Amino acid sequence: MAIASASLKPTLHKRLLSPKHPQLYPNSHLGPLLRHSSAGFRFSAIRASSAVTMQPESNVEKSQTSQVPEVFACPVCYEPLIRKGPTGINLGAIYRSGFKCKKCDKSYSSKDVYLDLTLSAGLRSYTEVKPAGTELFRSPLVSFLYERGWRQNFNRSGFPGPDEEFKVAQDYFKSAEGGLLVDVSCGSGLFSRKFAKSGTYSAVIALDFSENMLRQCYEFIKRDGTLLDTNLALVRADVSRLPFSSGSVYAVHAGAALHCWPSPSNAVAEITRILRSGGIFVGTTFLRYTSSTPQILRPLRQRVLQNYNYLTEEEIEDLCTSCGLTNYSSKVQQSFIMFSAQKP
Question: Methyltransferase type domain: from which residue to which, for each copy (predicted)?
């Protein structure tokens, strides 16, 4: 990764106001175990006490008319969505917009602080339970803890830390500067916020399946006033059914995510589909074992432990190339791997 889903109902005024691995040791591949007790926190479900803050339309929204084309697509049929409302990929514009598919007549809206573009968006009776690994991160508690101790433990497995990971990712994304970046499985938006603040991209979309991770991301955005004015949007979607037009995205980032995906092959195929020619995919994850792992121990490293998919260096490269990506490269440190590939 029963769910306590908080309800966020922002109030509009004339001007709107405002882990994935908790404990891993070097070469350890045990699944996440929540080692933080909620007793130590005064925790409650995340609520939006204030509405989405945004600049007047003339400042933020009009400026994006020529910079960022409409890229959202229906997750059912992949037809471009018809948008009613202000243009722009930012919190305020998307909150005030409605989206509809002209082909299947399905509507999507931002009743929360994020735009819900999942297949189940708007359904009243049908509910779908994902694998345990996915459901874990929909928990309000895990979402709250993710940047408050959970993510910090990644360094035990060789992760260099968010600042260094961001720096290396930016180097990989050099050719994508000025284009649209999608941060899939963004969690609480740790890297989405960094990408948005860098000013490198025309817009950044923080995308996750977890409602509570996106709510937590919004809480962090509110604390940093500069982010409220950036081209940053929050979207709920399934990585295996990405709601974007084919060939519309310049860069896709997936930090510490691949091992959490129910089907990495489906996810990478979708990422390849939405990338434009020359687009870059950068990801980090935990390896099942590395070249330094003794041969006698490798058979003991099961591919799936506690509902997570731990791959090897070779499997990740094979996965990327089999989905049509080229120019694969990677950096490995203990159980940490950062990899990059490009759509031809």
Answer: 182-282
Query: Phi and psi at residue 227, in whole multiples of 5°?
Result: -75, -25
**C-alpha span between 215 and 184 (Å, rounded):** 15
pLDDT over 60 (residue 285) = yes
Handedness of CA 302, 307, 308, 309 (dihedral sign): positive
Structure token pair of residue 297 = 């121990």
109 bridge partner residues? 98
Spell out the domains of the chain, with CATH numbers in brackets. Answer: 114-343 (3.40.50.150)
Share of the chain above pLDDT 70, in %: 76
Q: How are beta strands 203-208 and 180-183 bridged, if at all?
A: parallel
Question: What long-range pairs does 80-87 form, CB within 8 A, spacing at least 24?
Answer: 80/245, 81/108, 81/243, 86/57, 86/61, 87/61, 87/62
Residue 63 has pLDDT above 60, yes or no: no
Confidence band of 301 (pLDDT split at 50, 70, 90): low
Q: Is 35's pLDDT higher than 90?
A: no
Nearest to 152 by CA among 36, 51, 10, 269: 36
Q: What is the CA radius of gyration of the chain?
A: 19
| Rounded Cα gap, residues 111 and 98, in angstroms | 10
Amino acid letter, residue 216: Q
How many CB atoms sit inside 10 A of residue 285's CB?
26
Tell me the pTM.
0.78
Query: Edge-to-edge, what's the strand order for the sheet holding 81-84?
Result: 81-84, 98-101, 107-109
**Closest by Cα among 323, 115, 133 to 232:** 115
Looking at residue 133, its pLDDT comes to: 67
**Euclidean distance between CA atoms 283 and 107, whole angstroms:** 31
* Angle separating helix axes 313-322 and 264-274, nearest 10 degrees: 50
What is the distance, to the nearest Å, from the Cα of residue 265 to the centroid of all Cα atoms in its chain? 17
pLDDT of residue 146: 85
Helix (H) or strand (E) holding 48: none
